[in-house]
Amino acid sequence: MERSQEEAWDEMLEAGRPPHENDWDEAFWPLLEAASRNELFRSMYPWRTL
What we know:
Layout: H1 5-16, H2 28-37, H3 39-42, H4 46-49
Helix pairs in contact: 1-2
């Protein structure tokens, strides 16, 4: 079963939230957070909006 857009965003936000335990650039977090607050972007899967 495919995840909903909300579930995908929640997972992406959890993975990108500081402190970074992965190899994501810290500058990516503000962009990800801003995109997650955008109604149009939030209606799509995160990998399509990035």
